[in-house]
Design goal:
Blueprint (H helix, E strand, L loop, with lengths): L4 H5 L7 H14 L11 H15 L2 H17 L14 H7 L19 E7 L1 H6 L1 E12 L14 E3 L8 E8 L2 E8 L8 E3 L11 E12 L8 E4 L15 E7 L6 E3 L2 E9 H6 L1 E7 L2 E7 L8 E4 L15 E8 L6 H13 L2 H4 L5 H8 L4
Parallel strand pairs: 1-9, 11-15
Antiparallel strand pairs: 2-7, 3-6, 4-5, 8-9, 10-11, 12-13, 14-15
Helix pairs in contact: 2-3, 2-5
Length: 373
């Protein structure tokens, strides 16, 4: 393997121990056999990533590697622990979060299944009223054919001949400080101490497999873009009686061309011809429940805001609704007919300074135009 360990994990040379662990777990998920069985090189890629993790997660080995490279490790007696004992089954620990520390730890006890994340989108009216959304996703489930024990139905489960039922193997490696004795999970039984005489034909003896699931998610009224909903126990199945993980549903709220959302308020714009704004008018504006009628007083100015109380989004935790803010855009007429031009010229000749003078200062007008309080 000629690739740099840091490049393999996709981290910088100053990466922390936590960053290195996260990077390895991400790669392990990508290379999981049930979701990556189309790639015949997946197992080899995983073992390369595992070697990089084993070195970079150990401070002393990392120091030697940073200074002397892989040859320095070999000279010091390092050999990857999985060369003789590891297994592609180690992916399960990284994928399901079975190990509390290193992903090469034992698998003797019950382990909680990993979480699953899925994204869905709803329209703004659905986010306002609440909705039920059907979500389809893939998760690791217990194999129904073997009931999770990994054995073909009707065949026995025997003591592992490789570890004599202990679930672990011992190996001796050399280091700059002498020989080191370490225990590793048995690659044949995966730490169980028992193996099926005939592996299940459906799950290949793993006891679990990827399955498509469907669930109806209740999206609460008032939810915002980017918020997530947690469904307990809907994630990957646990191991050896462990509880399942959770399902996290990330909600995306599609943009609505009629509105801009500002917290629980909605903002919309209404175009008014200048003569109508001067005279005052009644206009229909879009709202979540259809259309609303607003009364615009004579002399309405560009940027004036008309507030419809309770016309916005509901608060996620209840209480009053937000408001619908209607911003007035005064439009100057174009492409005038000769009669329109004549009338406007007559009007223009009658306009005095008193008609256009404002009692507001420039900053007050800017605040009003921007909807600030």
């Amino acid at each position: 393997m000629a690739t740099d360990y840091y490049e393999l994990l996709g981290v910088g040379r100053d990466a922390s121990e936590t960053d290195i662990k996260k990077a390895f777990r991400r790669l392990a998920r990508e290379l999981h056999p049930d979701v990556n069985d189309h790639d015949p090189e997946a197992e080899g890629k995983f073992k390369e990533a595992a070697e990089a993790y084993e070195v970079l997660s150990d401070p002393e080995r990392r120091r030697i590697y940073d200074r002397y490279g892989r040859e320095g490790l070999r000279t010091g007696g390092y050999n990857p622990s999985f060369d003789g004992f590891g297994s592609f089954g180690d992916i399960f620990d990284a994928f399901f979060g079975a190990g509390a520390g290193s992903p090469f730890g034992g698998r003797g006890g019950a382990a909680q299944g990993g979480d699953v994340a899925v994204a869905v989108e709803v329209d703004l009216p659905e986010a306002a009223a609440g909705a039920s959304v059907d979500v389809t996703y893939e998760a690791i489930a217990r194999c129904e054919r073997c009931n999770g024990n990994g054995a073909e139905p009707g065949t026995p489960i025997e003591t592992c001949p490789r570890c004599d039922g202990h679930g672990q193997l011992q190996s001796v490696t050399r280091s700059p400080f002498g020989q080191v004795m370490r225990s590793v999970v048995c690659d044949q039984c995966g730490g169980e101490g028992k193996v099926p005489d005939q592996p299940c034909s459906r799950c290949r003896g793993r006891g679990r497999l990827a399955a498509e699931r469907r669930v109806q998610v209740d999206v609460p009224a008032g939810i915002e873009n980017g918020q997530r909903i947690r469904l307990a126990g809907r994630g990957h199945a646990g191991e050896r009686g462990g509880p399942p993980g959770d399902l996290y549903v990330l909600i995306g709220v599609r943009e609505d061309e009629r509105f801009v959302r500002d917290g629980s308020d909605l903002v919309t714009v209404v175009d008014i011809a200048a003569p109508r704004a001067a005279l005052g008018t009644t206009e229909s504006v879009p709202a979540l429940d259809g259309e609303r009628v607003v009364e615009l007083p004579p002399g309405t100015q560009p940027g004036d805001v008309h507030v419809i109380r309770g016309g916005g989004m509901p608060h996620l935790r209840g209480g009053r609704r937000g408001n619908l803010r209607v911003v007035v855009n005064v439009v100057i007429p174009r492409r005038l007919t000769s009669d329109q031009r004549r009338l406007l010229e007559e009007l223009a000749d009658t306009i005095t300074e008193d008609n256009v003078r404002s009692e507001e200062g420039v900053f007050s007008r800017l605040k009003r135009a921007l909807g600030a309080s």
